[in-house]
Design a protein that fits this description.
The complex is a heterodimer of chains A (about 160) and B (about 210). Chain A contains five helices and no strands. Chain A is mainly alpha-helical and about 160 residues long. Chain A is elongated and about 120 Å long. Chain B is an all-alpha fold and about 210 residues long. In chain B, helix 3 packs across helix 4, helix 4 crosses helix 8 and helix 8 crosses helix 9. Chain B starts with a helix and ends with a helix. Classes of the chains: A mainly alpha (about 160), B mainly alpha (about 210). Chains A and B meet through helix 1 and helix 2 of A and helix 2, helix 3, helix 6 and helix 9 of B.
């Protein structure tokens, strides 16, 4: 029994066995044809233009990233400078306002401003509301004490 | 084999000459080297087509198979001195070829950005190579279809399964030899083979 029949015999399915036989025959034929065909040795030309292009592309990318970094840095510096100028201007404006305000208060001291008066009233109302709320939120156990305090306050 | 074979030959030669009653001439290093070179040339001549066929079936690329075959024998030549003859020269060469093929796939996976010329032929082109034999036209078409289906199934196999499958059904190697070449156990070889055959069967059944 030669090797091929033994191999075909190990596969029960005759179609698979047949297909494998054809496959081997095909590979053998291809291999023989490829092996026996004359070959010419061709010196692989070094594509200098490809090398140059890749170098150029690499340089371009490096230059681009460097320029990008520099630009980003410049933009950051510029925005920081503008922010500093604005802050200085605001500070100067505030100082100027502060300098003007005492002058205004010294010129008109007899009448307090109406707005300030209103604000003071609002504050007092708010405090009164808070006090009453807090006293209402006293736990049940403290209720007698709270009542005592209320009566003291009333007296 | 290598040096071992050369030394053995020297011994045989000297025994013969002693038996003949002639003076024994010590073999020079150059002569030993020449014999080793001749031995290696014989090995190349006898095993090159088989290595080429295996690589061609694995890669489906004539140029690449040729290059890797050259590389295989170059490697073998470099290490010829270290070859002790524990296994046959063919087993040793096939092991080198399998390693080269593995390295090739690994490099290709890693260097996917490199400009690599893909000369691998497609399944249909590969299945065109079928000798006519004594088949009629219809049988020939059917056989070609089957070959294409087997190629398709082989394409879907893992690298290890493909190697085992090709060693068995193209190179017609024994399971023990496949195990030796691939460094796998015989059980693992059988398992790979069974899976590969299952795939081939499924491919053929799907087209029936």
């Amino acid at each position: 029994m030669n090797e091929r029949t033994k191999l075909a015999g190990e596969i029960e399915d005759p179609i698979v066995a047949g297909a494998l036989k054809h496959f081997k025959a095909s590979v053998d034929a291809w291999s023989e044809a490829a092996y026996s065909q004359p070959r010419t040795v061709v010196r692989t030309a070094r594509h200098t233009w490809r090398l140059a292009a890749s170098w150029a592309l690499g340089c371009l990318l490096a230059a681009g990233s460097l320029a990008g970094t520099l630009y980003e840095r410049h933009v950051q510096q510029e925005s920081a400078r503008i922010a500093a100028i604005k802050a200085a201007e605001q500070r100067a404006a505030l100082e100027r306002k502060a300098a003007e305000q005492p002058v205004a208060s010294t010129t008109d001291t007899s009448q307090p401003p109406v707005a300030a008066k209103n604000a003071a009233n609002e504050d007092e109302d708010l405090l009164a509301t808070v006090d009453s709320d807090v006293s209402r939120q006293v736990p049940a156990a403290m209720e007698p004490l709270a009542q005592m305090m209320e009566s003291n306050g009333a007296n | 084999m290598g040096t071992g074979v050369v030394n053995l030959r020297v011994m045989v030669a000297s025994t013969k000459s002693m038996a003949a009653g002639t003076a024994v001439k010590p073999m020079t290093a150059d002569a030993a080297e020449e014999i080793a070179a001749r031995e290696f040339a014989n090995i190349v001549e006898s095993h090159r087509p088989q290595i080429f066929r295996f690589l061609l079936a694995s890669l489906r690329d004539v140029d690449l198979a040729e290059t890797l075959t050259q590389e295989c024998f170059l490697k073998a030549h470099r290490n010829w001195k270290h070859f002790r003859g524990d296994s046959s020269a063919m087993t040793w060469l096939m092991r080198i070829a399998i390693n080269l093929q593995k390295d090739h796939w690994r490099n290709r996976r890693l260097q996917f950005w490199r400009h690599t010329q893909a000369n691998a032929v497609d399944v249909d082109e590969a299945s065109d190579w079928l000798p006519n034999g004594d088949r009629n036209a219809e049988q020939q078409i059917l056989a070609r279809e089957q070959v294409a289906q087997v190629w398709k199934a082989v394409e879907g196999l893992s690298q290890r399964q493909r190697t085992v499958f090709l060693l068995r059904y193209v190179d017609e190697r024994e399971l023990s030899e496949i195990a030796q070449v691939t460094g796998l156990s015989e059980g693992t070889v059988k398992a790979h083979l069974s899976r590969a055959l299952g795939r081939v069967r499924a491919e053929l059944r799907g087209k029936r």
